[in-house]
Amino acid sequence: MPTDFASLRAQFDLPKGVIYLDGNSLGPLPSAAAARVAKTITEEWGKLLITGWNKAGWMAQPSAVGDRIAKLIGAEAGSVVMGDTLSIKVYQALATALEMNPKRRVILSDTGNFPSDLYMADGLCRTLGPDYILKTVAPEEVLDAIDDTVAVTLITEVDYRTGRKHDMKAITKRAHEKGALTVWDLAHSAGALPVHLAACNADFAIGCTYKYLNSGPGGPAFIYVAPRHQEKARPALSGWLGHQQPFAFDLDYTPGNGIERMRVGTPPVLQLAALEAALDIWEQADMADVRAKSIALIDRFIAGVEGSFPDLTLASPRDGTLRGSQASFRHPEGYDIMQALIANGVIGDFRAPDILRFGFTPLYINENDVDMAVAILADIMTQSLWDRPEYKTRSRVT
Amino acid sequence: MPTDFASLRAQFDLPKGVIYLDGNSLGPLPSAAAARVAKTITEEWGKLLITGWNKAGWMAQPSAVGDRIAKLIGAEAGSVVMGDTLSIKVYQALATALEMNPKRRVILSDTGNFPSDLYMADGLCRTLGPDYILKTVAPEEVLDAIDDTVAVTLITEVDYRTGRKHDMKAITKRAHEKGALTVWDLAHSAGALPVHLAACNADFAIGCTYKYLNSGPGGPAFIYVAPRHQEKARPALSGWLGHQQPFAFDLDYTPGNGIERMRVGTPPVLQLAALEAALDIWEQADMADVRAKSIALIDRFIAGVEGSFPDLTLASPRDGTLRGSQASFRHPEGYDIMQALIANGVIGDFRAPDILRFGFTPLYINENDVDMAVAILADIMTQSLWDRPEYKTRSRVT
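Above: the input entities. Below: the structure tokens describing the complete assembly.
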């Protein structure tokens, strides 16, 4: 049965008058989330108190929710667990991978990666010692840069600015041929397009849930460890909830079974409740349908923008199969254009120096939204809106 | 004006028929928390969407809330920031402190410390390399074990099992005399007793908020860095929200100003909202009053228990000034006794092998609760309740 997108859209609270093209930064509110979190607070925390850890299933929640995420990213059951933030998970995955490839000292990433990934990798290298280096190359050079010095690659599948998508299968294959492990950052992939971690033979993956997965501000991250590695992975962030028997309170750390060992501290139960409400919507979506509609919406947007105002230069791949679920355009006045768009209810975002970024999420964006966004942008670019004093913030399109 | 404890108690949702002596594990629900979180979800996330980071103050929240915590732990304004879990903050504080004391290789802790602290320290040592060691001594030997090989001490002020309190001032003084830095874990101190980080000249401190501070399951942790160290601290967990200019998206990491650099990833906005509701109650409490009443409640409980059943051996210091806000007893049948207590509405917890642990938090526990808990315990110990079939779980007191 094809995905009923109108029904999905009806399950989000979208402010009237807003066309929200920033779900790739913070997804909108699932209508059921408030009640779900309220139930966790009043019925579970309030009434069960400490017994909620067992009676309400809080203790099992990180791996139970992880299994729901696994279905969206082509991962095996028992290979994903929730917790912490994406930055922490970058560190955890890298540190664990480096320890599994002990003769090598190089983390390979690219200059299109999200900066926090690079910062965390850099911090880890400093902690590990001067032999360890983070090497970055241009995104298009990644494949050729994987040589037999590389311990692990740290690649974000979809570029946060341009939406350009790396070839997970090819990079993973090359890495393995050269004896390297892979860490895939799925920040702009999970919920945006089909991901096939198992089929690509990926080693580690990490991601956040507050973008396309709509878990709300500060929603928890996830980590994937391929089943073949799980019993070899000795987590550097060895917290008590990753212990084999957390409640034995042993003084020595013994890693837990399988993916459980990647847990660290107490899970964020309230944020996980919001995520569960969002995943209830995802269960009604077929990711292939989502992808097809995402590409169609973005193609329509690109055609509309380029038809109205060719000075906006497409910064994303034109071929929908080569990009994530976003379209980015460059314009020297990009900051001001985005301010004018936002003031007119079209919420996208700006990434320095000149990128206007628009996320398209078929769960709640449809063709009519696209057409209206194009029309408003066209009005702004032809100055009928732009000339209004409140948009003359810093400069003007001339 | 003395603290109005009856008014504070009225601001918690406490289930009827329950005497909750486990707030040292998970604090109960502040009545205002559900509405506060609901507002964050529906009015902020739902309506402001991505603009909530600025318009609703989410971006500034970790340090704004940190300043509220600072007041409860004797810390300077601008020295505390929220985020992550306590385990992650242990790692962050230790890694940062070790880098500030680069000629030394020893982390000193004690065998009474909470295991996760030791696990995280151990994981860090493995990451740093074979020169680094975690040395643990008996709690009473800590002071003498601080020698000029110690880079940093990792001490939990209040023992999670017995409630025995370390002397923060004396240990910090000795550490500084020997050229060591200090990391204080305040898990069982923050909200339990007056803490004087600044007056004790502490270097780093960390803590959680879901125990005595009542932020709910999975509430965020905090980290303190003494102002004199902040500009020297280069965080090993160098995430983008600790960057000087997160939204410049520089490829290189530049630590942010002051305590801001200890931020890592996206803050847990929903959990922070619940914490804010809890802190609204704390603002009506004077910590000296809380401490005085806590000692009185525990003294009363100890007297009652020992008067009724001397086979329960006090495992906590008898002198109230030498313990945290809990009382622990040892009994060979401790597990079963606690099960019987819980079945009768007295919620404490059991810590292997033989410890019954009871937390006392004057914000919502009063003398009547203490007397009822003692009476129920006495009934159980004299078998009038114990003999009921549902409590014959594994063994019996004979």
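Note for the figure: Residues 392-398 of chain A have pLDDT under 50 and may be disordered.
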